[in-house]
Each structure stands twice: as structure tokens, then as C-alpha cells.
């Protein structure tokens, strides 16, 4: 379930709905091929249908959703070729963000990043995979922010939007990396040493292992997609 929208005078309801739906897509709240039902979403978030309709239209424009007909939108089903393209772009752009972060990050910021990874490891070891994946997203999002390149961060987030619905297919895999060998350790070390090249390579290794697992499971993930009723 998506949390209700908290009305804030400095931010429009439509903007809040849009951001919550973006996060829901990134965090596998919806599955590939699933139709999004406007009335259900409006009830979950405690808002009228108008801001939900506007947010869905905006997500279609961003490529995170696709229009089925005049009344329905759904989560895209990624082909092998499309996923490979998204992964290639992530490798380039997140590598650039990590490289820039190594030049700019301060010790307190690096400590905060290390704390997120420690939380992620604890969640993984206790089998709380859904929470672990949220913590992993926070690690990557924090790394992008350390680059202080907001345009680049927004582009990367758009790529995560496309991968997010597939991540549910990885929840049954407890370890993609052994905890002591996780590339996040190298990312943190690279930031502490202001080693841009190592930061780039470490985050790219992290993405590559994730992508290889996802590509292997893609046929099964797509085969298991829902057969939704019209929204």
C-alpha cells in the first residue's frame, strides 16, 4: 500500500502524488505489465482522482508507465534489449556520479553513506529483503547526491524507475554479493581516499552483478506478470 499524502503548503498535492508513485515504482510496489487503477491509488493516498490522473500522465511522459488506451496505463514490460540499454546507461552515468562524489564528499557524508550500507547488511542477514532493497536504493541515491549534480541524479532516477518493477524478481535471492566482498565497501573506501577511478569501477561492479542476475531471471519475471483487468 502507498502511504497517504500529507498535505504541505509548500508542495502541491499533484507533486506529492507524483513523487510517491515514483518511489513505489522504484521499490517494486508494482509489477511489469500491471495496470494502475486510478480509483484504488486515490483511495490509498487519500486524495481525489485529479492529482493521481495528472501524476500518471506525467509518468507516462517520463517513460516510467505506458498508455494502454484512453483510460488505462500500465507498468512497461522490459525486453532483454531494453534492459541491457538501461543497464549500459546506468553503468556510465552512475559511474560518473560516483567519480564526482569521490572528489567532493566530506568525511561526515561518507560516514552517513557507510551507515546506510551497514543497515542494508543487517537487513539482508536477517532476511528482510524488501527493507534491504529500500536501503540499497537509499545508498545509491545518497551517492548520487554527493556528486552535487542534480540533473544527472534525475536522469539516473529515471533509469531506476524502469528497473524498479523488476526487482521483485530478485527478492528470493538472499545474496548477490557476500557481505564482506560487497562493492559498496570499495565505494566507501574510494570516497575516503578521493579516488575517482576506484569509485567508478566499484559502483559499476555493483551494478553489473545486479544486472547479470536480473537478466538471467528476466524471462521468468516477465512470464509471471499479472493479467490485469482494465483500470
Structural commentary:
This is GntR family transcriptional regulator. The protein is 65% helix and 3% strand. It has 9 helices and 3 strands; from the N terminus they run αβααββαααααα. The chain has helices at residues 13-26, 38-45, 49-61, 80-104, 107-125, 129-146, 150-163, 183-192, 196-223; strands at 35-36, 66-67, 73-74. It is globular and about 55 Å long. The two termini are 17 Å apart.
Helices and strands, with pairings:
Layout lengths: L12 H14 L8 E2 L1 H8 L3 H13 L4 E2 L5 E2 L5 H25 L2 H19 L3 H18 L3 H14 L19 H10 L3 H28 L8
Antiparallel strand pairs: 1-3, 2-3
CATH third-level topology of the largest domain: Four Helix Bundle (Hemerythrin (Met), subunit A)
Beta-strand segment tally: 3
Number of domains: 2
Instruction: Supply Rg.
Output: 18 Å
Average pLDDT, rounded to a whole number, is: 87
Question: CATH class of the largest domain, anyone?
Answer: Mainly Alpha
Strand content: under 5%
Helix run count: 9
Basic shape: globular
Distance between the termini: 17 Å
In helices, the fraction of residues equals 55-70%
Q: Can you tell me the CATH architecture of the largest domain?
A: Up-down Bundle
Biggest sheet layout: 3 strands, antiparallel
Instruction: Provide the low-confidence segments as ranges.
Output: none
Structural class: mainly alpha
The helix-strand sequence is HEHHEEHHHHHH
Q: CATH superfamily assignment of the largest domain? A: GntR ligand-binding domain-like
Strand order of the largest sheet: 1-3-2
